[in-house]
Amino acid sequence: MVSAVVFDADETVIDLRPAVTGALAAVLEEMRRLTPAAQGVTLADLESDWDAVFGDHASEPVIEIRRAALARSIGRAGLGAELDRFADLFFARRFALSRPFDDTLPTLAALRPHYRLGLATNGNSRAERCGLEGEFAFELYAHVDGLPKKPAPAFFAAVVEAAGAEPGAIVYVGDTADHDVVAAQEAGMRAVWLNRKHHPRPAGLRPDAEIRSLDELPAVVATLAASPVR
């Protein structure tokens, strides 16, 4: 039996990459407008700054990780004192460009008559700011009301509570092997790995199903609903 289907946000139901790239391009344009020192800075430099700071900030809210990355970016041009201004610019552009994947809304519409739908994410992507307002019965965001980030067991305990179902009756769908598959399974849920880019399956990873597109999900969930929990 399956009674709830819960989704990760970024790169699962929300096409994050174009939004982030567009927001960083706006930041770079403003940097170059303000100072000649930014002329040698590239978009690739700004994109690399996330990875450069992530390790030191991984446990923090995603908004703070992005601010740390932006601080590194604008520091390349001596604009470190302008962090708040550039953060406002980045996030305004990022959310203006955030859109669901083309397969998201049709899939949600197909599932909604049969299952309780939820959104549960570590990221910044709020449903109402990304073209998904009203699409979910519940939404959970890490670092809101003390909710820890995935893969913390308490994150998935909150999913269970919000779904109003036993863990085995919940299917969690996401693109990240450790956070969205392994951690969900350890919490007793069924996990579907959304592998849009056809990455090789990591050694030892055993999702309950693997899909390339959300278009495949309704049939997969129906199959899982008819099968016992492993």
Give an overview in words:
By secondary structure, the chain is α/β, with parallel strands linked by helices. It has two domains: about 140 residues, 3-Layer(aba) Sandwich (Rossmann fold), CATH 3.40.50.1000; about 80 residues, Four Helix Bundle (Hemerythrin (Met), subunit A), CATH 1.20.120. It is about 45% helix and about 10% strand. It has eight helices and six strands, in the order βαααααββαβαββα. A six-stranded parallel beta sheet has the order 3-2-1-4-5-6, sandwiched between helices. Helix 7 links the parallel strand 4 and strand 5. Helix 2 crosses helix 3. It is elongated, with a radius of gyration of 19 Å.
Would you summarize the structure shown here?
The protein is α/β, with parallel strands linked by helices and 230 residues long.
Distance between the termini: 12 Å
Poorly predicted parts: none
Mean pLDDT: 96
Please state the CA-atom Rg, rounded to the nearest Å: 19 Å
Question: SSE layout and pairings?
Answer:
Elements: E1 4-7, H1 16-34, H2 43-57, H3 62-75, H4 83-97, H5 104-111, E2 116-121, E3 138-141, H6 153-163, E4 170-174, H7 177-186, E5 190-194, E6 209-211, H8 217-225
Parallel strand pairs: 1-2, 1-4, 2-3, 4-5, 5-6
